[in-house]
Structures are given as C-alpha cells and as structure tokens.
C-alpha cells in the first residue's frame, strides 16, 4: 500500500469529543499467517471463558466476553492502543473532519479514572473550566472507577442540548469539583489567525485535521494581503494542540520548510511502519488533490518564526515543532511538550469495528525520539496562568501507565537545557499552591489575548531579531 492510500493520524489517548492519534485506514493483511499460536495460553483463555459462562453470578453473552477480552488485550499494551466498537470507529472518522458531538475533552485512563489530557478550545468543557490533569471520578451519579475508557466516553456523549454532571478531582483542590455541562455538536476550525500589528502575524493550530493544511495556506495568504507587504515575523501557536492527522502535520511543516526537507520518520516492526516523510506534496496531499501550498505568499519560507509550545502540545504538534527546531527554521518558545512519540494505526476488522494499535515510534529529522520526554523549547517562557514546571503539575506521556519507553534510553526530561528562561512578573504568576490563575478572557471576536505573556514574549523576540538583521 502506498503512503497516499493511507489515512494517518497522530495524537493522544482516548477521545471524548474528538480524535487525535496516528491513523492508518488499511485492511489487516495476512502478514505472517503461519505464525505459531500459543496453544497453552489459548487453552487457558478458553478455560476461563467457559468457567465465566457456566459459573458467573449472572448470564453473560459471548459478544460481551469477547469484546471485553479484546479491550483488555489492547489496553494492557500502552495508553494509546484500544478497541473501537462500531460507534467509536464512526466517531473517530467523523472527528478527523472537524465536526463531532460531545463535550470537547481529550482523555485517557489513569488509576481507573478518566484523566483529562486537554480540553478542546471553544467547547463546553473548555468554557466550563475543565483543566488538563483533572480526574473525572463520577459521571452524573455513576462512579467511573471500574469503567473502560470506551464506556466512559459513551456515557459522556449524547444528544446536543442534553446535560451531564462531572465530578472532578483536581490536584491542589481539597474538595471535588462538580460541573454541569451541556453537550453540543463540536465544530472546530483548526486554524485561527490574526495580524498582531503591522508586519507581525499570528497563526494558531488547535488540531491537525483533514483540511488543516489548506486552512493554513489560506490564513497565510490573508495575513500577507492584510499586511500589504511581506511579514517581518510570524508566531505559530501550537500550545494545547493534542495532535491529529499526520499528513496535516507534514503539510504545516512543509509550508515553512524548503522542498524535500525531512519532517519526520517512523520506525516499527513492519515495512508499512517504516516511513520517511519529507516536505513533498505526495506526503501531505490526498489522492487527486491539488497542491494548496504551491501558491503560498513569497517569503513564507524565510520569514523569522517563533513556535509556541507547552505541556499540552502533543504528537502531531510535536512533530511540527521538532521538525522546525531541527531544521533551524524557527525558535521554539514556551514549556516542555507532552512527549507522545508513538504512531497508532487504525485497522478495520471488517464488521464495522476496528483496533487502534501502536505500530511505530516517530523521530525528528535529527533522530530524536521525544517519547515520554517531550521537546525542550529553545527559550523557556512560563505560562503565568499555570503553576511552574517545578511544581510537577500537569500530565505528560511519562505519567501514563504502560507508556512506551524512549528508545534512546530513559523517560526523564531532555538533558539539553534551554538557552534562556523567562519568568512572568510575580504579580501575574499563578499562586504557589498548585492552583491556576485564571487567564485574561478573550474579547468577542478576539483570536488571542493582548495580555498573553508568552505571545508578547514571542513578539518581542521577533522584533529583536528584526533589529539585529537591520544592523
């Protein structure tokens, strides 16, 4: 199967209202069909199956037992492999197109509870104040402990306009937080942009979806037209971007890199899992699609850039950040990224269900694996609305149970220290008790707050670079 025939996504764990993982919609081939089956282990499985059927306190259907066995087999591998029933598979496919129903939370499992990886911007969960790292312990009056991730996700889905009550445990908060959320049809435009001031543009990618590359090209074209001259600097904001389609990540990186520059490569046990993806149309276009990057404004590939990242930047966003950093194309600013460096392939089973299976690790152009480590920015700039890194707040790949090890050794943070650390003024920082400081609300129609400390630091850096170039 050629790469163009594949549907590849990169992102996080379970999804409540969206998809963010590495996807490859290919049929399961008859690879190594002659592989010997473990007879003794299968005998033990059938013995347990038979004993449950005969002795369990209540009758249990064959389908429920088999589905539960498949779920357990996959969830025991790593945090991102999973079984997708018919409904889950359909939701995943719809989610990659930028419209889906639910609350708007990227979730995983931790110690039997649903753990929030990131609320998706402009969704009910985001507006209600759900935070990364929150543990959802109850759904309405039903405890989450003991549920599978898929079961919890199903309970959180529902008819738009209906409500659900989430009971949340949050680090640093003594009492459970109870939030009532109204479900909605989630429509996400994955690219937002604004001319911050004359000569300086801002582009935010919230997720990597099917049309993200095209939306980015359109955003850059409009920025250049609004500025009526080549830009002097550009900020690419990937903060709290949980990932998405791999070809979307390659398209975003390709917009700023020289043609045929290496963006990412993957390595796994099968030949299909070994890919080398460059800034070339065949690696980001869908079949029969014209090249939307061909007519980018002149200067896009040379404009000075700052890429903003944080602990919510995961997978596909880490691929883009790593490529632009390794290729010396942009300065990375913010805080260390999430650290998801694995690739999941969606393998349909032929009956409307599928398995999401981790099939490869990915590497940045210089050969770095960010798995369980993340990417350290060139300049660390703290987010004043969040506790500092030293407080150990937030969730990262290394915190997830059964996470894959980094092939380069160790799961600690990268040893390379940033060249500079910029702290927010004391008055603007979150209190040192583990609680967040509420960020300044956006004005109606505003894309980014004028008081965003990290954005302002990025803008200052770009202006400084402009002065140095002029000299």
From TrEMBL:
Residues 89-157 form the PDZ domain. Pfam families: CtpB_N-like (PF22694), PDZ_2 (PF13180), Peptidase_S41 (PF03572). Keywords: Hydrolase, Protease, Serine protease, Signal. Residues 1-29 form the signal peptide. CDD domains: cpPDZ_CPP-like, Peptidase_S41_CPP. It comes from the Bacteria. Residues 403-449 are annotated as: Disordered. Residues 430-440 have a biased composition (Basic and acidic residues). PANTHER family: CARBOXY-TERMINAL PROCESSING PROTEASE CTPA (PTHR32060:SF30), TAIL-SPECIFIC PROTEASE (PTHR32060). Belongs to the peptidase S41A family. NCBIfam families: prc. This is S41 family peptidase.
